[in-house]
Amino acid sequence: MIAINLSPEIEKRLDQLEKATGRTKASFLEEAIVEYLENLEDAQLAEQELMDIKESLLDPAVVRGHEAIWPGKLSFPISRSETWIDSTGYNHSEF
Question: What is the C-alpha R_g of the chain?
Answer without folding.
Answer: 23
